[in-house]
Amino acid sequence: MTTALASRTGTTPRLAAWRHLPRETRDTLFLLGVIAWVIAPHAAHLPWWCTALAAVVLLWRARLALTGAPLPGRWVLGALLLAAVAATLVTHRTLFGKEAGVTLVVVLMALKTLELRARRDAFVVFFLGFFLVLTNFLYSQSLPLALAMVLAVWGLLTALVVSQMPVGQPSLAKAAALSARLCLFGAPVMVALFVLFPRFAPLWGLPTDAHAGRTGLSNMMEMGSVAELALDDSIAMRVKFDGPAPPPQALYFRGPVLAEFDGRHWRPLPYRGWPRSQRADGNLQLGTQAFRYSLTIEPTRIASLPLLEVTPEVPRLGEILPRMREDLEWVTGQPLRERQRFEATAYTGFRHGPVAWTAGLRDYLQLPEGYNPRTLAWAQALRQQLPDADARRLAQAVFAHIRTQGYAYTLAPGRYGDEQGRHAIDEFWLDRKQGFCEHFAAAFVVVMRAMGVPARIVTGYQGAEYNPVDGYHLVRHAYAHAWAEYWQPGAGWVRADPTGAVAPERIRMALDLGPATGVVAATLSTVNPELWRRLRNHWDAVNNAWNQWVLNYSRGTQFELLRHLGFDAPGWQDLVVLLLGLVAAAASAGAAWAWWERHRQDPWVQAYRRMQAQLAAAGLPSGPHVPPRTLAAQARARWGEQAARVAELLSRMEALRYAPAAGATPRSSTLARSLARELRRALLELRHAPHP
Asked: Which three-class secondary structure state does DSSP give residue 386?
């Protein structure tokens, strides 16, 4: 029977079944769906038992709503609550803090649905839901999450509207439309507060954990570490050049410089004290070609800024004052906890380092004893073949060996060395000859040092992906790279990228070995690569706009906005004055609208009063509360059958108000005004008609 009814009404059986549910059941199921939507983003951060408990409780509550069974007693809820609190204490070792607090709120939210007996219980669920919407942003402030939470707020407001109405009124569709209008009315207030509300550091902003953000780069490198990073396709930073961009082979973003080698791990040399000046440029000579760029860098896990080689000046980043080390690495003293945006200038043609031998260069000749003996012997043999060669010629000889001896560039070379990781360079350089950029850079440095040439490893990023939608160059973690530098008398430190000898397209075209894509992405890129590239570029542009204009909106951006509005030296006092002015203007506009709405008359009343005035001028006065039916009877009594047309128009006016025909409404201004005009003509005809 249900199927036949659905066929006649044009609805599916499921929709027909949903409409036949009691209204209270439908409202409860809708609220449970909204709660599940709010909790879902937390699943990645909650303990497994909390996610399972919330899912089971919500399904249990849905079954109770469908079957009409009674809700569980307080003893059951108390036992579940005590068990959840104990599990939280065991999992987090505390009942305080972000993780434990969010876990408990999710538990309370789920359990509260099992005692939805009164309106006050529903209010508790609503407020917990709004609070959980906010807690989602403690973990992520991405655009997809923001859109999902907007939908969650809409759903919670819809449920709140339904709870304030009598049972069955309004429908869910009407309640959703009303809540959408409320959101739209509140949007200007939200925008004004976001733009003008003063941001007082460090109170403004969301808390972050020390490990929350990362660029992926590390202060330590071993065989395979950079290759693992190359599997990460997320964005490390965005670069936008004021003019023409450097060629791809010049896009080297310099990060940690590694020189200390223990046979397995590469690390930076110990700091010889914090750099005293912001720019350690005693041995730095800049070229004439400059590239002005703006950089938006994601949070980092190390105290280092990977900047375009070479960037001699960097502004203060909030409370952080970056400083340049002697090896041209920009250090910050602490990792970046939040996204930073600043402008700088890079000089891709430069020279740095001492031009004559100094004692400090001995640090770049050290090799651990007992490691990689075959590679050291090979390097010594090459040195004996070229006894008079300088460092540049020796480097060229090593590059020629890489190009001609069957070396391969691969993202998955496998594990090198014995169980302790010893002799990995020997196995790569002389046996398997397959590796990623760090394998080639590490082997090159070991060989050069074995031949008596100071050398070191530089890590960072190489290349960038240009997005024509917004003009930004995207530097992804997949562009992580390791190259080398060797010291040449009279020239200083010289860049040498062994990867270019075996995979020149990696450097020349800035191609990355990205991770395997998912099923949908792989299908799109196979069927229509250009479509997939455009979709990806547009999404990156939208995401970048969200980061630049929303997440990166800071106190400095506020003051810049005030300067554009005419303030010479803006401060937070100007923000407060402007915000109060907008609030006063909004309040005045609201009061004016309320006054207008209060004194506004609907079109029917206006037209009927016009008809009353016309009848009064014709000799038939009436009070303001006389209905059209009474006026029609008075007109017939006064003028007899000659007033038939007048009475008909008055009857039609009353029907328009109390029994409108199809297509007409009680506030239909067009028809009401038309009846008033016809009444004026009828009264004119009545005035000129002969009276008995």
From this structure: coil
